[in-house]
Amino acid sequence: GAGVSQSPSNKVTEKGKDVELRCDPISGHTALYWYRQRLGQGLEFLIYFQGNSAPDKSGLPSDRFSAERTGESVSTLTIQRTQQEDSAVYLCASSQGQGTWYGYTFGSGTRLTVV
Amino acid sequence: QKEVEQNSGPLSVPEGAIASLNCTYSDRGSQSFFWYRQYSGKSPELIMFIYSNGDKEDGRFTAQLNKASQYVSLLIRDSQPSDSATYLCAVNNPGGGNKLTFGTGTQLKVEL
What we know:
The structure holds two protein chains of two kinds.
Chain A: E1 5-7, E2 10-13, E3 19-24, E4 31-37, E5 43-50, E6 65-69, E7 75-79, E8 88-95, H1 99-102, E9 105-106, E10 110-114
Parallel strand pairs in A: 2-10
Antiparallel strand pairs in A: 1-3, 3-7, 4-5, 4-8, 6-7, 8-9, 8-10
Chain B: E1 4-5, E2 11-14, E3 19-25, E4 33-38, E5 45-50, E6 54-58, E7 61-66, E8 71-76, E9 85-92, E10 100-102, E11 106-111
Parallel strand pairs in B: 2-11
Antiparallel strand pairs in B: 1-3, 3-8, 4-5, 4-9, 6-7, 7-8, 9-10, 9-11
């Protein structure tokens, strides 16, 4: 697609429910990143996919968080048993090759509110 | 010490002035440096990148890199109210894998 597409744009969920967030990267971008941004805070790295290599999961805050990506296409971030502290904007970004050289293109984000 | 540090601001400048935004980083091995602009409620947008020491100009924006001092800056000439946003500095962190580490951002306000 023309840009990074994320869905849903907004999600309100009850504490304890599971949520699934979707990211569709720019076509041809091999690298895909998930970040989290809490209100008034900086960007917190969650997970990184590069082609068919094993993902870098070093930023996932707990085992309630998981993510998958099939090949170089869509990725889903799943949060199980959501907690109020999970409320944030979840940003997906993709990059041509290694994002550390080309920079990222971000999607518009999913605003998650846990009530 | 944070890996990427920025003054949170707000930095207020009058319209038409030069805005100077600064960023320091801790990893001497860092090689790529990026500036993102983030309007309130929006996602970050890449505006500049720089790899080599010195200045890089693009329109009203100039990125400056000094690897010896481990700082990178962004100058915005002829500041406009539409430049009012939070500016995020991002740096690659070779010791931390193939990802960028972001500063918490500096809020810029351009006043009429």
